[in-house]
Design the sequence.
């Protein structure tokens, strides 16, 4: 079993490992701005601070043979599914150690062994692709499922509606997870969308739907499990709306000054890390000392990851010419 | 040896789809009205009956949705063929082809292939008006990761369809709608690889490169002109067959490209540029292009017939260029238009 599959197995089996992965994502994301300022990252990045419970909760429920399409806000999901921090940060830094050898960048993370399709930088772009993966499972009669994760903004693009309709009429084993973090790029959802509960849109497609508390990993696991079980048993697609909040701005350049006063602070009271800690302390799995150690160990781990990625070579010029077409094979 | 059978262009497409589906259980077809109705141009006749509703599917009018579904299905081991009824309808699905399908291998560090085929009917001549008559190969030709083919007769339709389905990467097939009813002999054992042009007529005076319905037009033009012209059916726009084209131009010293596409931004410019920069000292005259004017496809039968390069006009330009050694004017320049 590869090291990355082992990382996946850990979050599938153990609640403390899930908590540690959430801390890993938090620590990882908090390093990004500093690396940007230091010139180690170029272009743009989209952080998922505050959305760790959804990423890890999802990864804990799915099998590695299930397929996930996700978005440019994908560092957390990639880490949760089991990609190594080196594979993710290396890609963000454009180094050969990255999961795409440095030619993809922050917005394009993938690992098919873990079921992660290349994340898409186009709003809604991964949704029909996930439906197609589900179509393949249906035709080949496996019980794997496909999951499309997308933001609240994607519910206003054509791909969302076309894909939900197609998945519904074909009864595809696909789960649509809307990560409603309240903001589509720089605009609050109420400025762009006439309804608050986005999952209601599934009614138009006669598709089961519900919302869940995306700040609570337990709620994520319960809701995703329900939808996954339906899809695996031939019951078709589900639209889930996870209510989350984006603690950072849309992207690197965005200070998120458009937020109403007090909104961030209100959501931070329900920080998914805090919610998980409280639950694990209550169950006796963690205490204050263990939590402090996990956090300080993770800081050290991520510092090492940064050093490893800094030391990784730049891609060769030849790598620019690779992987455009599949090596020739004529006939079958 | 396979058998040689006379059939219509559209039947060659049906045969190729059926033969691929028999040979490979992962091949499937979906699109608007392709199953129950057997295709708006009858290019899927009998397929639902033979292969059933799991593999032959009608879709909603959702080109982005079902083109994207083909991307996902292809990644996960199927070989989907999707039909875009009119090439213009690809506009709403272009993201999935150009930005998803064509980038998947690159963005997966070579782990993924996307063996999907997008078929679209193209071209003018049937009075469908300007939103249903364009060829638009130039929309997709500048996309690394995507292959683009265009058959000009029933044999090419059969062989290129099979080659496209067997190809491990996304392939766009442009089917000239005006050719669907044309008859031709099809040898089912004949392989036409993607990226290989077809020399349809040997000659020494001029090399003519054409695509799709312009191949027939060019053939008639050559007969009318009485000149000794080498006719090449390009067949694949991307990656185009530099070797066959440049070898021919080296021999004849003259190149004319006949395109059913607007003058500006055409694939023929690429061919003229390559021949000019690589064979400059061996040329006997300036390579040039015969195209449509830079206007939308007109509806009126009189106008549409004139809009597209005609055999008479191609014959005139071939003859003039050989006689005068200069590049002939387009018909609209001669008419004082534009």
Sequence:
């Amino acid at each position: 079993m590869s090291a990355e599959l082992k990382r996946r197995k850990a979050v599938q089996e153990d609640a403390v490992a899930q908590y540690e992965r959430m801390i890993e994502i938090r620590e990882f994301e908090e390093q990004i701005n500093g690396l940007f300022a230091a010139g180690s990252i170029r272009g743009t990045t989209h952080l998922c601070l505050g959305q760790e419970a959804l990423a890890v909760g999802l990864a804990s429920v799915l099998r590695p043979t299930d397929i996930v399409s996700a978005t440019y806000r994908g560092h957390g999901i990639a880490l949760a599914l089991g990609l190594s921090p080196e594979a993710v940060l290396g890609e963000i830094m454009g180094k050969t150690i990255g999961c795409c050898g440095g030619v993809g960048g922050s917005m394009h993370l993938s690992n098919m062994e873990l079921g992660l399709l290349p994340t898409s930088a186009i709003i809604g772009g991964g949704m029909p692709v996930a439906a197609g993966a589900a179509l393949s499972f249906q035709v080949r009669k496996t019980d794997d499922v496909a999951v499309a994760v997308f933001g609240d903004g994607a519910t206003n693009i054509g791909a969302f509606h076309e894909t939900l309709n197609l998945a519904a009429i074909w009864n595809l084993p696909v789960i649509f997870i809307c990560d409603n973090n309240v903001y589509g790029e720089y605009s609050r959802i109420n400025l762009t969308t006439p309804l608050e509960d986005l999952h209601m849109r599934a009614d138009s497609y006669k598709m089961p739907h519900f919302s869940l508390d995306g700040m609570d990993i337990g709620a994520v696991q319960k809701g995703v499990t329900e939808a996954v079980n339906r899809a695996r048993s031939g019951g078709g697609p589900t639209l889930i709306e996870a209510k989350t909040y984006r603690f950072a701005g849309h992207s690197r350049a965005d200070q998120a000054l458009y937020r109403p006063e007090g909104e961030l602070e209100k959501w931070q009271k329900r920080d998914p890390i805090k919610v998980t800690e409280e639950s694990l302390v209550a169950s006796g799995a963690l205490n204050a000392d263990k939590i402090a150690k996990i956090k300080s160990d993770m800081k050290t781990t991520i510092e090492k990851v940064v050093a490893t990625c800094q030391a990784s070579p730049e891609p060769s010029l030849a790598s620019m010419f690779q992987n455009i077409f599949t090596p020739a094979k004529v006939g079958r | 040896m396979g058998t040689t059978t006379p059939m219509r262009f559209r039947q060659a497409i049906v045969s190729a789809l059926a033969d691929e589906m028999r040979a490979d259980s992962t091949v499937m077809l979906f699109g608007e009205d392709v199953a129950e109705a057997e295709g708006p141009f009858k290019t899927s006749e009998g397929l639902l009956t033979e292969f059933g509703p799991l593999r032959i599917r009608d879709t909603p009018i959702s080109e982005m949705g079902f083109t994207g579904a083909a991307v996902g299905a292809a990644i996960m081991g199927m070989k989907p063929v999707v039909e875009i009824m009119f090439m213009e309808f690809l506009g709403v699905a272009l993201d999935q082809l150009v930005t998803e399908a064509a980038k998947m291998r690159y963005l997966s560090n070579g782990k993924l292939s996307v063996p999907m085929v997008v078929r679209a009917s193209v071209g003018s001549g049937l009075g469908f008006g300007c939103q249903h008559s364009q060829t638009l190969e130039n929309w997709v030709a500048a996309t690394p990761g995507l292959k683009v083919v265009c058959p000009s007769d029933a044999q090419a339709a059969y062989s290129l369809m099979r080659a496209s389905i067997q190809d491990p990467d996304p392939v766009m097939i442009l089917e000239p709608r005006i050719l669907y009813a044309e008859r031709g002999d099809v040898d089912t054992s004949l392989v036409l690889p993607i990226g290989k042009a077809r020399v349809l007529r040997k000659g020494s005076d001029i090399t003519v490169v054409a695509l799709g319905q312009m191949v027939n037009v060019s053939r008639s033009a050559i007969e009318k002109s009485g000149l000794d012209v080498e006719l090449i059916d390009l067949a694949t726009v991307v990656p185009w067959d530099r070797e066959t084209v440049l070898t021919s131009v080296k021999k004849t010293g003259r190149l004319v490209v006949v395109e059913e596409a607007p003058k500006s931004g055409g694939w023929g410019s690429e061919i003229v540029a390559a021949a000019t920069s690589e064979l400059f000292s061996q040329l006997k005259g300036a390579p040039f292009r015969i195209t449509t004017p830079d206007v939308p496809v007109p509806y009126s039968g009189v106008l549409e017939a004139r809009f597209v390069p005609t055999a008479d006009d191609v014959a005139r330009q071939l003859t003039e260029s050989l006689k005068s050694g200069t590049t002939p004017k387009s018909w609209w320049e001669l008419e004082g238009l534009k």
The radius of gyration of chain A is 19 Å. Chain A has a mean pLDDT of 96.
